[in-house]
# Entry
Amino acid sequence: MDEITTEAQLREVIGEPLPRVATKDRPRLDDIDRQWLAASPFCLVATSHGDGSCDVSPKGDPPGFTVVLDDRTIALPERAGNRRADGFRNILTNPHVGLVYLLPGRDDTFRVQGRARLVRDADLLDRMVVEGSRPLLAMVVEIESVFYHCAKAFMRSRLWDAGTWTPDAAPSRPRIAQRQERPDEPLEELERYYGEQYAAGLYPAQAQPRSSTPPGTGASGS
# Structure
C-alpha cells in the first residue's frame, strides 16, 4: 500500500483547511449549542485507554438527555446496560473524550471535545430520572472545544433517506446473538428477549437512590 506517514504527505493529498474552518472551534457553549443539546436524543462518545486502545459508544435518551451545567460543563446519564463499560474504563486511565451529537433528520452534527470524569452525585442523578428510573452514574465533561461538523458524510450516505434503508440486509439482532454470543439458546427465546422484553427493560425501577456521600464521612449508617 502507498501509505501516508507524515502530516506533510497528508496535506499534499487533502490540502489545507480554509481559515474559517481551521479556527471555528470554540471553548464554550453558546445559546445555539444549548438549543442543539436540548433537542438531541443521541450522541457517540469516543474514548481511548492509557495504552492507546479506543472505543466509541452510543448514548441515547429522550431529547435533552445531556444536562448543561454551565457554558463549559455538560453531563450525560449512564443507565443499565451490558456492563462492559469499555468507554468508562478508558476514562479512568485517560480522561480525554470526543462526542458527536445528532439531530434526527439533520445532516450536520455538533462536536464536543474535553475531559471527562465519572460521578454519582445524588442531586445530579435526580435531574436525569426518566420514567421513574434513575441513572447509575453520570459522565461529566469539562469542555475544551466545540464546533459544528459539515453535512457531507450524512448527505453522501443518505442516512436519513428512508428510501435507502435496508434493515434486513444483515441478520437480525437475535440471529447475530445466537451465532456469535449465545449459541446454546433457542432462536425463539432470543427473539422474545430482544423484542418486548428488551424494550420493557430500558428504564428499570430502582428501589433506593444512591447517596453521593461516601461511607464514613458523616452519613448516618444502618
Confidence is low (pLDDT under 50) at residues 207-222. The first helix runs from residue 7 to 14.
